[in-house]
Design goal:
The complex is a heterodimer of chains A (158) and B (445).
Chain A: H1 3-19, H2 21-26, E1 30-34, E2 42-43, H3 45-52, E3 66-70, H4 75-84, H5 88-101, E4 109-111, H6 114-123, E5 127-132, E6 141-145
Parallel strand pairs in A: 2-6, 3-4, 3-5
Antiparallel strand pairs in A: 1-5, 1-6
Chain B: H1 3-28, H2 34-68, H3 87-92, E1 108-109, E2 112-125, E3 143-146, E4 149-157, E5 162-172, E6 178-192, E7 195-203, H4 208-213, E8 241-250, E9 258-266, E10 270-272, E11 280-282, E12 287-295, E13 303-316, E14 320-338, E15 341-354, E16 362-373, E17 378-388, E18 401-412, E19 417-428, E20 431-444
Antiparallel strand pairs in B: 1-2, 2-3, 2-4, 2-20, 4-5, 5-6, 6-7, 7-8, 8-9, 9-12, 10-11, 12-13, 13-14, 14-15, 15-16, 16-17, 17-18, 18-19, 19-20
Helix pairs in contact in B: 1-2
Classes of the chains: A alpha/beta (158), B alpha+beta (445).
């Protein structure tokens, strides 16, 4: 087998690997996580957007929503800003305005680590957050977005 | 847990780890295993680091426990007649929580969250005749500095569904005197997303601007409010505040995003004439009703379309309190805020109908349109406004016809401080055109 054949086989393998959506998505998909006790199993992208702009205050069961976010620069934050079509500066100004309008009690709680996201899930039964799918921990319940879990082809948050 | 026990446990774990690692290394040693060895060593180093961190955390816990229980330590000279805690009891003592609390929010003081907003302004007009002497601007001066509104905003959650909100504004008046105005004071109750009620003094939901920007100059793109949206205490035409009850919420409408607002309260508006005649009219309102609908469709993020209808009975005290008018205000707006663009368009029709005469009506149409685009830290803007009050309407005869453009830019120095520069040109009926320069430093803290 010549070098050309080996190179072709390698390239073919790489192509097959990259076509595997799960393998591709797992490296960059962002999961929507809630507390394990939260009965929600699915959220539409529109409702997720409304949730993270503070337009939805409660879960269908009546539980108050508590937004938990990661700080600027994290992949979760980048995806959140993409979801809301805002820059970091616009996001800060928007939340200051929301609180001032009385539309929200407080700005979303920003935590610096996945461990603290997990802790927040435990403390706030209505908590919702975005977590890199690779970093999901026990105590976090991943819910579908438009019927899809992270890793699925067409998953919206990546 | 006793410190010695933790240390022993850690030492054993470390020893076991080293033995395992040595065994693994010996097994896998071979001419072609260099990469694998390097990977294994890296993993082991990581595990040792984790163990060291755990050890450090445990030591911290012990220090915390010792600091909290000085009387239990024999060395502290505490009462030695007390029985020492048994090892079982000591082991059952729950460890203090790990230091996982989020960074302290300095805007949260014992459950009361606060925010502040302020501004420092410089304004100059090309006329010396008194005009629009509000917010501390000295009527008749060529130009002067003033501080406008300085607001303190407080919120506190009382339960899962109830909270309190208040907005206290220190408003500059003539001769650098400050009035305190409780702009908003609300007890809020949220049953769910479809029903949110507020009781107290609220900002009326007539139009978008009144809801979106409230009294914080920092939130606004422009240096001032459009005249039609100006606070009534500063000569604005609308009843911007009321005391009563308001309800708002979403209506099940799928992707249409339909919402409602309903308000019932007492406005009791008092507005100074803006033509410098020094008169102040107490409208002595009855109870107002305001209902509105707005939609935020999912299909166009940032778009909001709304309309509202307001009705009240008011007086013109200059003519006498017995002369009552039925006042109706219809509003419609189309607003787009997204992708760095802000495009605000609102129209109003204020209709004053004297109750003693059925054949007289005074209509005051007004609108404004404002466009701005964020370019980096800079946001250039342009605004055009129009108000046309009948000269025969004794309530708004000081306003008359006014229209014209404003140009300028807002520059965000950081996330909390903005500098704005604005040029205004106002055409007035029966008066020379008015030109103005407005500079503003607006901030939030």
């Amino acid at each position: 087998m010549g070098i050309k054949s080996i190179t072709t086989l390698l390239l073919l393998g790489l192509a097959i690997f990259s076509l595997n959506p799960q393998a591709m998505a797992q490296s960059s998909d962002i999961a929507v996580v809630v507390s394990p006790d939260n009965p929600a199993t699915n959220v539409s992208l529109g409702d997720l957007r409304k949730t993270f702009v503070g337009a939805k205050h409660s879960w269908p069961g009546g539980q108050a929503i508590k937004l938990i976010t990661r700080g600027p620069g994290c992949p979760e934050r980048v995806v959140l800003l993409k979801l809301l079509a805002m820059s970091e500066s616009e996001y800060k100004q928007y939340w200051t305005a929301q609180v001032f309008r009385g539309e929200a009690d407080a700005e979303p709680l920003t935590v610096p680590s996945v461990g603290m996201q997990k802790e927040a899930m435990r403390l706030f039964p209505g908590a919702v957050s975005l977590v890199n799918a690779r970093d999901v921990k026990p105590g976090m319940k991943v819910i579908k977005v438009d019927g899809l879990l992270p890793g699925a082809a067409g998953y919206a948050l990546r | 847990m006793p410190r010695g026990r933790i240390r022993t446990r850690f030492d054993r774990l470390l020893l076991a780890l080293l033995l395992v690692s040595t065994f693994s290394w010996a097994q896998s040693a071979g001419p072609n295993s260099g990469d694998h060895d390097q990977e294994t060593i890296t993993q082991l180093v990581e595990q040792i680091k984790q163990l060291q961190q755990q050890d450090h955390d445990l030591e911290e816990r012990i220090k915390n426990l010792e600091a909290k229980q000085p009387q239990a330590s024999p060395a502290s000279g505490a009462d030695s007649s007390l029985p020492a805690p048994s090892p079982q009891v000591a082991e059952q003592t729950p460890p203090p929580p790990l230091p996982t609390a989020p960074p302290r929010d300095w805007h949260d003081v014992r459950g009361i969250k606060w925010r502040g907003f302020g501004e420092v302004d410089y304004q100059a007009l090309d006329q010396r005749r008194p005009e629009l002497g509000t917010y501390g601007f000295v009527p008749g001066s060529a130009g002067n500095f003033y501080t406008g509104d300085f607001g303190l905003f407080l919120t506190s959650r009382l339960s899962n569904r109830t909270s309190v909100l208040s907005e206290i504004v220190f408003e500059e008046r003539d001769a650098q005197r400050y009035d305190i105005d409780l702009r908003r004071m609300l007890l809020k109750y949220e049953y769910n997303d479809h029903l949110k009620m507020s009781f107290g003094r609220y900002q009326t939901s007539i139009g978008y601007y009144n809801w979106a920007f409230l009294s914080a100059a920092w939130l606004q793109t422009t240096a001032d409010r459009p005249l039609i949206m100006e606070y009534s205490s500063n000569g604005g035409l609308l009843p911007t505040q009321a005391i009563g009850v308001s309800a708002t919420g979403s209506i099940l409408s799928g992707k249409l995003g339909l919402n409602y607002v309903a308000e019932y309260g007492s406005s009791d508006t008092k507005r100074p004439d803006i033509n410098g005649d020094g008169l102040v009219n107490d409208e002595n309102n009855g109870n107002q009703v305001n209902v509105g609908l707005y939609l935020r469709p999912d299909a166009v993020r940032g778009l909001q379309i709304g309309s509202s209808y307001y009705h009240d009975k008011i007086s013109n005290l200059i003519q006498g309190p017995s002369l009552r008018y039925g006042q109706s205000i219809v509003n419609g707006y189309v607003v787009y805020v997204g992708h760095g663009i802000e495009f605000l368009n609102e129209g109003f029709l204020i209709r004053d109908a004297p109750l003693h005469s059925s054949d007289t009506l005074f209509n005051t149409p007004a609108f404004y349109s404002q466009f701005s685009k964020q370019i980096g830290h800079l946001r250039p803007f342009v605004r055009y406004q129009y108000v046309n009050a009948s000269p025969n309407d004794s309530i708004y005869n000081d306003v008359g016809l006014r229209f014209g453009p404003s140009f300028g830019a807002r520059y965000d120095l950081n996330d909390y401080i903005a500098f704005k520069a604005q040029l205004d040109h106002t055409v007035r009926r029966g008066e020379p055109d008015l030109n103005g320069l407005h500079l503003q430093l607006a901030f939030a803290f």
